Amino acid sequence: MESTDCVKEGDNLILKKENSLKLFKLWKKRRVFMDKKDFLLDAALGQPYGTVWEVRNNDVVQIDHSVIQAEQVDSASGGDNRNIVDDSSTQKLSREDISSLKESGHSGESIIEQLVENSASFKDKNVYSQAKYRKKKREKHLTRFQILRPSTRLLCDMYWNRAPSKIIQLRADTLAQILTAANIQSTSKVMLVESTQGLVLGAMMERMAGQGTIVQFHSEDKPVRLAVDAYNFPQSYQDTVHSLVLGNVGRLFKEINCTESPKAQESTEVEKSQVQITEKLDTESGDTKQTLQQGATCTEQSADLQEERKASDDMQKDESKTEVGSSTESAQSAKVKDQEESAMEITSREESGTEKKQGKGKRKMETPEQKEAKLERQQQRQEAFVKVKEILQQQNMDALVIVSRFQPSPILMALIELLALSRPFVVYCSNKEPLMECYLKLRERGGAISLRITETWLRNYQVLPKRTHPLVTMSGTGGYLLTGITVEAPPATSPAT
Question: Is the pTM of this model over 0.85?
Answer without folding.
Answer: no
